[in-house]
Amino acid sequence: MISKHSTNAHGHQAGVTLLEMIIVLAIIGMCLMTYANYKRKEAQQSHQVIVGDMIARDISGVMRFVAQDKLATSNSAQQANPLYGKNTHVNIANYDNRVTNRTLQDSPDRDDNNFYSGWSAAVSTQTDVSPTRGSRYLFLGSECRNGNIEKGKLPFKLTESMLPCELRPGAESLELVLERVDFVNNNRTNGLGIERVDFYLVYQNEVENEGLHFAGFIKPLEKALKGVDLGYLQAVVFEVNNSGNFNLVTTAADQPLQMGDVPNNLDRLDANKRYGIRLSLDKNSEDITADGSVPAAKLCWNDAKGEAGPCITAIDEDRLLITSSDATGKDKNEPAMCWSREQNKSTLCLAAMNSNGVNPDGRLNPDGTPYNPDDRILHLRTSADKTDGSEVDPASPSSLKGTTGTLYANIVMENTSRRHPEKWYVAYNGTDADRLKNGIQDDDDTSSLPNQFADAFHGQYELVTPTTTFYQSFKNDYPQGKGPTGADPVYTAANDSTNYNKLLSEPGVIRLPLQTCPKVTGIDKDRKTKLRSLYPRLSVAISSVAADEDDGANKTGGYFDYTQQGATRTNSYKSKNDPKPLGAVAAVAIQANIVVNKDIVSANVPDKANVNGIFEDWIAEKWFKGTGNNLDEPFWLISAASATITPGGKKDVNKINPQSLSVVINQWCSTIPQGGMISSEGYAWTEAEPNKYVLHSLVAEDNDLKFYKENGNELDIPDHERITY
Which residue has the higher pLDDT, 119 or 288? Predict the structure, then answer.
């Protein structure tokens, strides 16, 4: 008997249950939702990046436009930037808008005549463009067109458009739109200067409760700005009220709400209101290059700590102030300014350090001691490191670290022992000089003493350059008409006796090029800016002199040879067995002159009028410069005569420019010129003036100088004792 059983009664069934199907679908749905949210967020971020890049391009273009003083055009000509009121080809009224909210804490200006709004609004032609509609096109030229119709408002074609000619379609309807641009002149003046630019980006939320989504744009904006080498001073939140006005959102401390602080201040915001981001950029927020093409009013940085300071700040157009920080609450003392061309080398530092100073101004400190504004000086130091990498004397002030550095520079200094006098008397020749020796005491009579002028820099210190000092001797080694055996024709002709009749042909003199002197800007006694010229100066002092005589010189090989400073004593005796006869020095006269070409003298006669009270009214500048031809150049000519009494007093000898007379010469420049300028037009020494004087001397009358006698009474100084230059 065969028994049959069902194999499915308790067996495994094929397929899935409804519950399993529901679970699987739920998992798939959750994955799809997560993926969709991810893709939506990714799309939103991509959209934010696109919007940020578009806005950053406009911001970059504005900052580049603002930085230009001249605009390059397609016809190779340059046009003045109309933002600064210098271009007569444009309507300046379109470019002189400046807001009144000068600080970052001030409320935004509400007068639409002061800013540029409707920035991103679409326009078809330049006639539609105004400071309140499509205002970006005010900064574009005729290179931007809508077909054949010009859209750029500038009446010339720019070589390079700094802003894109077109925004992407529908730009004015995007979630974040650049609505307004403000130019800020925070110098507290009414001029057209621009120190800061504020950009107002309005968030246009499409649905309710999305008013806070603007915060998501700050990171893409920062990245986009970095891509065009820009950084902002401040990014804050503003609200757009029902009237369309902009108001800064503030914190509980009544400070503008920074974008980075939005998460901590959500109680200050309402998701149903309209908000935006204000980006504030310094005019010089772009990458500062070292070629001077980008002006900077203030630079602050600290790469090591990532915080504000040290700072270099412009006090005015000529001066910089170095401070340790610009951050609130930070010490602002002057630190060292250090730099190094190469790493791993000693770094030079200009460090501020205490000084006694030389310029007290009469005021007193609170403790009664004299106030001295010159109580700080700059000290150039090297901050060399030790071999182990540690800094030398780390506990010392920066002004004392390392060793004193070496400065390579041309220097103008104040001579605090001499001030410019109240009045000058000019002697153009010997006759003038003789008249000045008598009768000038407090004499304002220009009829009897016409060449006088009041110094425009009366009471100010004489300015000088450092002195150059060197040794030199005169060159005549034999008496007139004599010479060594076998002398060549040039020597014989040069030392001919007839050449001693005139100064410029006289043998043995010392001739030196005239040094070049600088000019510096000064403030005269009437508070007017004038250039102060410095003039060549020279002084001569005897170093060594021998009382040799002609007969002995002819017998023993010439005058004592003092041409070499290191052999003056050695050369006093050519031979110990046959010393030269020595007498007594009766007199030595050394004369220093500036020689000016006679043609330059006749072509350049000074005004001799007290116009400005400066030497240029009385001295021709061409005297010191020549014409560039070597034969016209002025030069120093130093000559000498030495009188000797021979042994036993049998004979007097007068030597001209002998090599047995050596001197020390000092050269420098000064704001007080030197007399003794002569023309190359020469005469014989037997004449009263062997050379025609161009400028004989200058006499200073300074009634500010007071001197006293033994009894303490004031000393009256006679005219001939006045300082003569």
Answer: 119
